[in-house]
Amino acid sequence: VPLRREYARTGDMELGAGERIGGNTYIFATDFGGVDNNDCRPLVAVRNAEFKPKRWCVYGNTELEFLHSLPKRRSVGGKVVVECGWRAEGSAIVEARGGDGQWHKTGEVDAVGRFEFPLPQSACGTDKIYVRIVGDGGKKTGVQIYGYKTEIDFEGESLSFCGSTKYFEAESGRLFAEAKAFRACARIGAGIS
Q1: Model's pTM, two decimal places?
Q2: Considering only CA atoms, which of 52, 26, 47 is closest in space to residue 37?
Q3: Distance between alpha carbon 122 and the CA centroid of its chain, in Å?
Q4: Taking the mean position of all CA atoms in its chain, how far away is CA 55?
């Protein structure tokens, strides 16, 4: 069944499952597990990475790219958290890009554990921050990412808003399923647009 997504909206802000704003802080968090797993609004590109239940496998020439968009709100700082549940070889490089258009290394995941990296100031100062996780060496098992979280502090009007994602059958428009706020993102079958 082909599906279409619909996200929660308030004013110019649109947030999906796993995203929320409290005051002047935007948070996106997902653990890629359970019924909700690898489809989420901020995930904008997957290049050669393999999804297995509860985790993304990054190695060699693979990449996950996330876009955190805060319309009309200027980012002033934040952090990225990556949880590695298994590692055979190689590492995962975490990079961020903001208004200057350049990727800036924020850290490297080279062991099992939780890694927290500050967003570089060079990636801030804009309403869109891209974060990517790039495989560096290793074979198909490389580094396995079990969780991802980004927190971004911003200037401007404070807000309290939790995201959600609803999936509708493309042809009939009937509600198929809903992923609520602050749960991992949902992927429900093939054909999601």
Answers
A1: 0.86
A2: 52
A3: 20
A4: 13
The CA-CA-CA angle for residues 44, 158, 153, to 5°, reads 50
Contacts of 47 (CB under 8 A, 6+ apart): 61, 62, 63, 64, 65
Residue 46: which residues within 8 A CB-CB, separation 6 or more? 63, 64, 65
pLDDT tens-digit readout, 102-151: 999 999 999 999 999 999 999 999 999 999 999 987 676 689 999 999 99
Compute the distance between CA of residue 36 and CA of residue 139 in angstroms, rounded to an integer.
27
The per-residue pLDDT for range 53-72, each reduced to its tens digit, is: 888 989 888 999 999 999 98
Task: Please give the full DSSP string across 137-190, using - where no structure is assigned.
Answer: S--TTSEEEEEEEEEEEE-S--EEEE--EEEEETTT--EEEEE-TTS-----SS
Closest to 81 in 3D by CA, of 97, 69, 92: 92
